[in-house]
Write a structure and sequence with these properties.
The protein has helices at 6-13, 23-34, 90-97, 108-114, 118-121, 129-135, 141-160, 187-192; strands spanning 47-48, 55-61, 74-83, 166-169, 176-179, 201-206, 217-218, 224-226, 232-240. By secondary structure, it is α+β, with helices and mostly antiparallel strands. The protein folds into 2 domains: 20-85 and 163-240, Chitinase A, domain 3 (Roll), CATH 3.10.50; 90-160. Its EC number is 5.2.1.8.
């Protein structure tokens, strides 16, 4: 893609073709990220990036130019990734969580009709044997037990991995570089970055099935970095497109 700020590209690299922030600017950016939770909430609305609203962004700092990255473009971003709030709607519970509970797809209509959202699912005083048996009409005791245990694991996970926990950042490794459309990045990035202008900084919020899914992410040592079904929030800035 042609440079969005030609003069800047010429100063930094001597040629046109891409723009990238110098190290001093990146360091300043990460200082901002370290305190972004202390900033006044942005008044702009969340912008949905897919039809079901499972991925959305909120612009914190406007970018420049009109050109956007296209499939095949090499892009670079700075980011801080944190665990987001598991604010699931009924549809989120069914699409993101229930479909990953083996052999329990048939319960989906009951979840929808009973309005089982994320709050209900993770509340042990509501999501009980009696509720699953009578309200969700799960008569099979094994299936009932599987649902109860899975909901308890999810609730325990929320306690062990609090909202706002930072799990990754480009601060030490430098900008994250990838090619759009190659499937080398999480789906949420593939949806968000093509909507960003050069220099734009946004919050990106995504459901787990657009990130690390039902498996989450672990280090090679086995340490859990991103738990299963985790909603993620990225403070992301586009450095090159």
């Amino acid at each position: 893609m042609q440079a969005l700020a030609l003069s800047c590209a010429m100063i930094l690299h001597g040629v046109a073709g891409f723009t990238i922030f110098p190290a001093a600017t990146r360091n300043s950016y990460h200082n901002k990220l370290a305190t972004h939770h202390e900033m006044s909430p942005c008044e702009e609305e969340w912008i949905p990036l897919c039809d079901n609203g499972a991925v959305k962004k909120k612009i914190l700092e406007e970018g420049s130019g009109d050109a956007l990255a296209q499939p095949g473009s090499e892009v670079e971003v700075d980011y801080v990734g944190t665990l987001g709030e598991q604010d699931w709607s009924v549809e989120d519970v069914v699409e993101c969580w229930l479909k990953n509970q083996q052999g329990l797809d048939a319960v989906a209509p009951a979840f929808l009709s009973s309005g089982v959202d994320g709050t209900m699912l993770m509340d042990s005083s509501i999501f009980t044997d009696e509720f699953v048996t009578n309200e969700l009409c799960v008569s099979n005791k094994i299936q009932c037990k599987k649902l109860i245990m899975a909901s308890k694991r999810l609730a325990k996970q929320q306690q062990d991995f609090p909202v706002g926990t930072e799990f990754d950042s480009s601060a030490e490794r430098g900008p994250y570089k990838f090619t759009l459309g190659k499937g080398k990045s999480i789906q949420a990035y593939e949806l968000c970055v093509p909507t960003m202008k050069y220099g734009e900084r946004s919050l990106l919020l995504c459901r787990s099935d657009y990130a690390y899914g039902a498996e989450g992410f672990r280090r090679k040592t086995g340490e859990v970095i991103v738990p299963p079904f985790a909603t993620l929030c990225f403070d992301i800035k586009l450095l090159k497109c």
